[in-house]
Amino acid sequence: MKLWKVFVIPVLLLGLWGCKQPKVTPEQIAEHYTERPFSAEYTVTTHSGFYTEYRLVCTRQDGVSTVTILQPESVAGISAVLQGNSAQLQYEELSLDALLPEVPGYAPMDMLQQLLIDLQNPPEFSGGEQGHLTLEYRSTESDGTELLKLVMLDETTLDVQCAECYLDGSLILSLKMEAIQWR
Question: CA–CA distance from 14 to each of 21, 22, 134 (Å)?
Fold first, then answer.
């Protein structure tokens, strides 16, 4: 009699666990990342050439993002105002136009901005661990350079938790979200 419990109870538990898993669609992610105002604090690490960690804060309002470097101390206080494909660097009262990288999202200052744009057109999910969704963005530039962005979202809030950007298989940048607040 007790032998059936050994088989039936785990099957029932697995069935109930599976029912509790929220089903998130790409459309829900796209809607979550439309031009909503927010503020975020995060860390971007460069992995090519030299290893540097940047602690950044970003605010977005009316399609304009302002990213300010908090650390390292040597560049703290420098801000970039990003709108579309243009950028303006600011420090105290100095302001100058700047060029964004040829491949959007592959510089510490515009990485989060570009991820949020990418998330408005999410691909199918590539998997993920319990409580997380992992998205893969793959593309090839006209010169043959292969781009890969991996983005991990919290399955409940759909907020970015971390991301990695690769060029031709080499890790270039990684992002770790510390806090994000939607307004």
Answer: 11, 15, 22
Task: List C-alpha distances in Å: 181 to 38, 115, 118, 155, 160.
Answer: 5, 16, 19, 16, 11
pLDDT digits (tens, 9 = 90+) for 121-156: 888 666 777 788 999 999 999 999 999 999 999 999
CA atoms of 112 and 24, how far apart (whole Å)? 22
Strands (E), the chain: 38-46, 52-61, 64-71, 79-83, 86-91, 94-98, 125-127, 132-140, 146-154, 160-167, 170-182
Rounded distance between C-alpha atoms, residue 38 and residue 21, angstroms? 27
Give CA separation, 28 vs 23, 34, 47, 149, 177, in Å: 10, 10, 32, 20, 20
User: What Å distances lie between residue 29 and 51, 105, 111, 160, CA to CA?
Assistant: 32, 19, 18, 11
Report the predicted TM-score, pTM, of the whole model to 2 decimal places: 0.82
Q: How far apart are CA 24 and CA 132, in angstroms?
A: 11
pLDDT for 89 beyond 80: yes
What's the one-letter identity of residue 155? E
